[in-house]
Design goal:
about 110 residues; mainly alpha; about 45% helix; about 0% strand
Length: about 110
């Protein structure tokens, strides 16, 4: 058995065990924000005003992402059988396109 020395006692005595309901966060002491505030007084809008602006078509500075639409439908894969079916469908499409390319190439060369 390993002999317990003062150095091993110090290492193990400093180790803190974090539990789920520990009230103090040991690792994060927090931060101090000394920069000036960027808020502008009296520039807030209430929920009522936001809804009125929305219904009237007045756009706010809120970012809105436009949805992307694709030429083909994006499959919904719930399990492995759906994945296998989709893979087989892609292979069939690839084979049909390769056949069409070969036919077009043969028509152009003759």
């Amino acid at each position: 058995m390993k002999k317990v020395t003062d150095s091993t006692k110090k290492v193990f005595s400093k180790t803190k065990i974090r539990k789920q309901f520990t009230s103090k966060p040991y690792d994060f002491p927090g931060e101090v924000n000394n920069s000036p505030s960027m808020t502008i007084p009296d520039m807030t809008l209430g929920v009522k005003q936001l809804l009125l602006n929305h219904t009237r078509g007045i756009h706010s500075d809120v970012g809105y992402n436009e949805p992307m639409y694709f030429d083909q439908e994006i499959p919904i894969i719930n399990d492995l059988t759906d994945l296998d079916d989709y893979r087989q469908d892609l292979k069939n499409r690839e084979k049909a396109l390769n056949d069409k390319i070969k036919d077009d190439h043969n028509k152009n060369t003759t």
